[in-house]
From TrEMBL:
<comment type="pathway">
    <text>Amine and polyamine biosynthesis; putrescine biosynthesis via L-ornithine pathway; putrescine from L-ornithine: step 1/1.</text>
</comment>
<feature type="modified residue" description="N6-(pyridoxal phosphate)lysine">
    <location>
        <position position="49"/>
    </location>
</feature>
<dbReference type="InterPro" id="IPR022653">
    <property type="entry name" value="De-COase2_pyr-phos_BS"/>
</dbReference>
<keyword id="KW-0456">Lyase</keyword>
<dbReference type="InterPro" id="IPR000183">
    <property type="entry name" value="Orn/DAP/Arg_de-COase"/>
</dbReference>
<dbReference type="InterPro" id="IPR022644">
    <property type="entry name" value="De-COase2_N"/>
</dbReference>
<keyword id="KW-0663">Pyridoxal phosphate</keyword>
<keyword id="KW-0210">Decarboxylase</keyword>
<comment type="similarity">
    <text>Belongs to the Orn/Lys/Arg decarboxylase class-II family.</text>
</comment>
<dbReference type="GO" id="GO:0005737">
    <property type="term" value="C:cytoplasm"/>
</dbReference>
<dbReference type="GO" id="GO:0004586">
    <property type="term" value="F:ornithine decarboxylase activity"/>
</dbReference>
<dbReference type="InterPro" id="IPR029066">
    <property type="entry name" value="PLP-binding_barrel"/>
</dbReference>
<dbReference type="Pfam" id="PF02784">
    <property type="entry name" value="Orn_Arg_deC_N"/>
</dbReference>
<feature type="domain" description="Orn/DAP/Arg decarboxylase 2 N-terminal">
    <location>
        <begin position="26"/>
        <end position="269"/>
    </location>
</feature>
<dbReference type="InterPro" id="IPR009006">
    <property type="entry name" value="Ala_racemase/Decarboxylase_C"/>
</dbReference>
<dbReference type="InterPro" id="IPR002433">
    <property type="entry name" value="Orn_de-COase"/>
</dbReference>
<protein>
    <recommendedName>
        <fullName>ornithine decarboxylase</fullName>
        <ecNumber>4.1.1.17</ecNumber>
    </recommendedName>
</protein>
């Protein structure tokens, strides 16, 4: 399943004469509504790290979403944008004493955890808080596995929750993250099975959690992999596996069990695109003596396309629909060799007539673009952002 750029997004990109990240807010809202229909009864806590833009947070909050926040800074922004504190949880297992105390002071009462040390700190700095323990996953099938830094094995999760109970915290839930841009239903199935086993073990110890947090990992639909092959995630199957798995967990639990999910890229990636321009199309000989084309764009790894070493984005070259194409390595504008699509052998066919200054649209680049941008590495400033369906002047500094 892939998506072409929406008409409002295309119109806004065409109308933009300067480099910008353009979001289609209505598209993000539609994606949210579809997700709610596909997973009835599952509450959405938007992983705001994927797009920490006030208007997006406010629009999703108006539709009933909450936020998965990873720091006191994100908590504060979500609250400012109108997300009620009761719908914000602290989803990062990594936090200092000060982070916990600050978030608690801001009204946060639900925290992720995965270790006895973190539980002990929560008991001191967020006394009585609700905690959910992250169960580790293997990350197989995902573009970004997220498998080492977070979570504990199911057996350890049971001990962590016992420690939480002893420390006066509320052992409220379990969570997983199947890895970002998860491409298989099987990974969800395996994670849900682990959750089932953990719920059973908790039940034997008299711990009855009230919710399961399914984490992130739902895919964007418009990416290509590092070699340029379209990523075609089996979204319908993934939804079916989640629905069936949730029903099975409720059966195992034998008591009311709520579900939340923390989509990041799934909600925003395909509804944001960058209007960039061509810095230069060059041809020069490489170390192997072979001539090679390089297409240098005005945006790259350090100003909007941080994930360009793991993905290829679909590029549109307005005004160059016909004419010969040449195979090129695509790279960003900085003086850093990491600022390029990583596979030199996966060349992208680009119009041979491209000239410096020509517009380029980088599609499905709405996730992790504003957040993973440097302050101005090599003097290339963060991209301002604008909104499809509004006048071009309505841009904010990113
Ligand atoms: C705890 C947590 N939840 C959700 C997400 C969002 O993941 P994704 O963008 O794959 O949906 C992340 C991303 O790193 C995360 O760390």
């Amino acid at each position: 399943m892939t998506e072409d750029v929406s008409a409002p997004l295309a119109a806004a990109l065409a109308a933009t004469t300067e480099d910008r990240l353009v979001y289609d807010l209505a598209g993000i809202e539609r994606r949210y509504d579809t997700l709610r229909r596909e997973l009835p009864g599952v509450r959405v806590r938007f992983a705001m790290k994927a797009c920490p833009v006030d208007e997006v947070l406010t629009a999703l909050a108006r539709r009933g979403a909450g936020v998965d926040a990873a720091s006191p800074g994100e908590v504060a922004q979500a609250l400012r944008a109108g997300v009620p504190a009761g719908r914000v949880h602290y989803g990062n297992t990594v936090k200092s004493d000060r982070n916990i105390a600050d978030a608690h002071r801001l009204g946060i009462r639900t925290f992720a955890t995965d270790s006895p040390q973190d539980v002990a700190a929560l008991a001191v700095h967020a006394p009585g808080a609700r905690v959910f323990c992250r169960v580790a996953t293997g990350g197989t099938g995902a573009v970004w596995g997220l498998s080492h830094k977070f979570g504990c094995p199911p057996g350890d999760a049971v001990h962590v929750m016992e420690r939480a109970r002893e420390a006066g915290l509320v052992p409220a839930g379990l969570s997983v993250h199947v890895g970002s841009q998860q491409m298989t239903g099987e990974a969800w199935h395996a994670a849900l099975e682990d959750l089932g086993g953990t719920l059973r073990a908790l039940g034997r110890r008299g711990i009855r959690v009230d919710h399961v947090n399914l984490g992130g990992g739902l895919p964007a639909l418009g990416y290509r992999d590092r070699h340029g092959t379209p990523l075609d995630p089996p979204l319908d199957k993934i939804f079916a596996v989640i629905r069936e798995g949730a029903a099975e967990l409720r059966r195992i639990h034998g008591a009311p069990l709520d579900f939340v999910i923390e989509p990041g890229r799934h909600l925003v990636a395909d509804h944001g695109a960058i209007r960039a321009h061509v810095a230069r199309l060059t041809e020069r000989r490489g170390a192997d003596g072979e001539p090679r084309y390089w297409l240098y764009l005005s945006c790259g790894k350090f100003n909007g396309l941080y994930e360009m070493d793991a993905l290829q984005y679909r590029l549109v070259f307005p005004g160059h629909t016909d004419g010969p194409r040449v195979p090129a390595v695509v790279a960003g504008p900085t003086c850093d060799s990491d600022d390029a699509y990583c596979h030199e052998e996966a060349l992208v066919p680009v119009p041979a007539a491209l000239a410096s200054g020509d517009p380029v649209w980088v599609l499905s680049s709405g996730a992790y673009a504003t957040s993973y941008t440097t302050l101005g590495f090599n003097g290339f400033a963060p991209l301002p952002y604008a909104w499809a369906g509004r006048p071009e002047g309505d841009a904010a500094d990113g």
